[in-house]
Amino acid sequence: MTSTSVFVSGANGYIAQHVVKQLLAKGYSVVGSVRSEAKGEELKSLINNDKFSYEVVPSLTEKGAFDDAIKKHPEVTVFLHTASPVSFSIKDIENDLVKPAIEGTVNALSAIKNYGPQITRVVVTSSAVSILGFGPYFDSDKIYNEDDWNPITYEEGLTNPHFGYFSSKKFAELAANDFVAKENPKFNISFVQPVYVFGPQAYAVKDKANLNFSSEIVNRVVKLSKDDKIPEEAAEFIDVRDVARAHIIAFESDEAISKRLFLAAETYTLDSIADIINRRFPQSTVPKADLSKNAEILKTAHKIDNSRTRKILGFEFKTLEESVYDTVEQINNA
Ligand code: NAP
């Protein structure tokens, strides 16, 4: 057991709740930031552990956003920055999506440098979208790895919310690298870059009609009726429990310093998800999957080689079958 104290920004998020849960299970103390007292109290009662406390950081873009929270916690030696908008129904792409991602990252790093000299390890939750090419930049022949960068420009990011999200993650990651290069802070930094994240919620499901964005991909299949057509969609997935584990290894392991941990387990199609539900939950209303279409649909998925990441992490990723089963089991019981 350890006495190390870890700060987790956006602690009430889907991924962050798993990070907090695993940290507490390993004996770490956790200070989480949330946007309001009400969200903090709700999270505290879900977590129900004396080693968890929270601070309210209302805005990522306010200058000095994290200064007070860091000043109040001289015991914190690790900072995990997960907070960032994951929303595609916004109107103002730059102010609601891109700026909170970039400025939130810089504000967190500045607070750590100025007021948390005892903080030695920082992990930023970036994304596979800062590595992979999409739309005009998708290359079906390319094998993407930890060295690749999505070529999207800042201006292209302002043209639609999906591009806005891609650019928010890419430019936040670049801003973190710039900060480290210019400010030469005392901490070491690592990045966690998941593809679509599936898997159960860490605690209770609040509203099973509306899960977080990536879990809704599985939930959209769950909500189909027998006669519905299964949309032809393919991409890559990683289980949320593996994403949380990677955040912890990212600061525990010296091999992860300055690395991009590119998290992808398998490709999926909505038919593969439906097939798992058909087999494992025979009473469900999900239409019958047609796996013969998969080879064609999967041509739109990225090819990935994340062997360097897998070597640093040293554990096997959960399979799509396990992740979808656990997700649907939890939705059914909610
Ligand atoms: P989530 O459940 O929506 O959590 C996002 C967290 O960020 C929440 O705590 C949210 O607070 C906070 N946040 C969002 N916008 C904010 C803003 N403008 N100001 C302050 N806080 C804000 O999403 P998630 O899937 O767990 O994502 C967590 C991190 O993983 C993000 O950095 C995301 O980009 C990254 N990621 C996710 C996936 C995925 O498939 N889920 C894949 C790759 C990377 P509220 O609850 O108050 O809104």
Automatic annotation (TrEMBL):
SUPFAM superfamilies: NAD(P)-binding Rossmann-fold domains. It comes from the Eukaryota. Residues 6-256 form the NAD-dependent epimerase/dehydratase domain. Coiled coil: none annotated. CDD domains: AR_SDR_e (cd05227). One of its GO terms (molecular function) is oxidoreductase activity, acting on the CH-OH group of donors, NAD or NADP as acceptor. InterPro entries: Epimerase_deHydtase (IPR001509), NAD(P)-bd_dom_sf (IPR036291), NAD(P)_dehydrat-like (IPR050425). Keywords: Oxidoreductase. It holds the Pfam family Epimerase. Belongs to the NAD(P)-dependent epimerase/dehydratase family. Dihydroflavonol-4-reductase subfamily. PANTHER family: NAD DEPENDENT EPIMERASE/DEHYDRATASE (PTHR10366), STEROL-4-ALPHA-CARBOXYLATE 3-DEHYDROGENASE, DECARBOXYLATING (PTHR10366:SF564). This is NAD-dependent epimerase/dehydratase domain-containing protein. It comes from Spathaspora passalidarum (strain NRRL Y-27907 / 11-Y1).
